[in-house]
């Protein structure tokens, strides 16, 4: 049985993935907003918003597992692919929560433009994923569009890798305060990790796409 023949079983599953991606996109925008002000009180408010989204994301993952458990006719491969995607989305949202919490913990003396750029890449990736998931309702019809969005996430992740490496070189050259340098480096690592986790989501979608179109 190929995937398009069991589309009726996915009607309650794909919308859950869409909501997960929506929460991820919103959380990414919140994290980017944290980079535009140097106000720990404002950061705390934004962190609480992201933490709330992460809690809602956990509830969505539980809902997804309950729903997919009811779909006894789903092929094992498809079941595993969809579950892996749902878990990858949840993991990515967890990283965004950790990144926002790190802002509060480290309380950096400044927010360099390079950190702001990394945060914007996170937003762009999340938005690409958000645009991708509605297309899963018809994988074969939308295969090209899905691939374009996944490619966009991959390109952005490569941009983030380069931006991270450039920024680390910059702070080691320009930042005399070792304490602050460590803060900046750790924040940049978390932001780069966030882009990696979002690329992982896109990679998981590619696996589902390849499994379907190969049949």
Summarize the structure in words:
This protein is mainly alpha-helical. Helices cover 80% and strands 0% of the residues. It has six helices and no strands. The protein has helices at 14-34, 40-70, 76-106, 113-132, 143-174, 178-213. The longest helix is centred in the last third of the chain and has 36 residues, at 178-213. It is elongated. Residues 1-5 have low confidence and may be disordered.
How many strands? 0
- Class per helix and strand makeup: mainly alpha
First and last CA, distance: 9 Å
Average pLDDT metric: 93
Task: Report the portion of residues in β strands.
Answer: under 5%
Helix-strand pattern: HHHHHH
Separate helix tally: 6
**Spans of at least 5 consecutive residues with low confidence:** 1-5
Largest sheet: none
How large, in whole angstroms, is the Cα Rg? 19 Å
Amount of helix: over 70%
The geometry reads as elongated
Write the layout of secondary structure elements.
Layout: H1 14-34, H2 40-70, H3 76-106, H4 113-132, H5 143-174, H6 178-213
Helix pairs in contact: 1-2, 1-3, 1-4, 2-3, 3-6, 4-5, 4-6, 5-6
Question: Any key phrases for this structure?
Answer:
mainly alpha; disordered N terminus; 215 residues
Summary?
With 215 residues, the chain is mainly alpha-helical. It has helices spanning 14-34, 40-70, 76-106, 113-132, 143-174, 178-213.
């Amino acid at each position: 049985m190929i995937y398009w023949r069991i589309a009726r079983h996915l009607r309650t599953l794909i919308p859950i993935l869409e909501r997960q991606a929506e929460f991820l996109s919103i959380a990414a925008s919140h994290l980017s907003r944290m980079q535009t002000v140097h106000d720990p009180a404002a950061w705390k408010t934004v962190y609480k918003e992201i933490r709330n989204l992460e809690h809602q994301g956990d509830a969505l993952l539980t809902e997804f597992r309950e729903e997919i458990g009811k779909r006894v006719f789903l092929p094992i491969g498809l079941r595993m692919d969809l579950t892996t995607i749902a878990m990858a989305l949840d993991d990515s949202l967890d990283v965004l929560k950790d990144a926002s919490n790190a802002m509060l913990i480290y309380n950096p003396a400044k927010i360099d433009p390079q950190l702001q750029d990394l945060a914007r890449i996170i937003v762009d990736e999340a938005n690409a994923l958000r645009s991708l998931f509605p297309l899963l309702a018809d994988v074969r019809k939308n295969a090209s569009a899905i691939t374009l969005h996944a490619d966009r996430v991959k390109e952005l992740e490569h941009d983030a890798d380069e931006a991270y490496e450039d920024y680390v070189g910059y702070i080691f050259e320009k930042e005399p305060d070792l304490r602050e340098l460590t803060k900046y480096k750790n924040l940049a690592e978390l932001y780069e990790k966030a882009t990696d986790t979002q690329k992982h989501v896109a990679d998981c979608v590619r696996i589902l796409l390849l499994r379907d179109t190969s049949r």
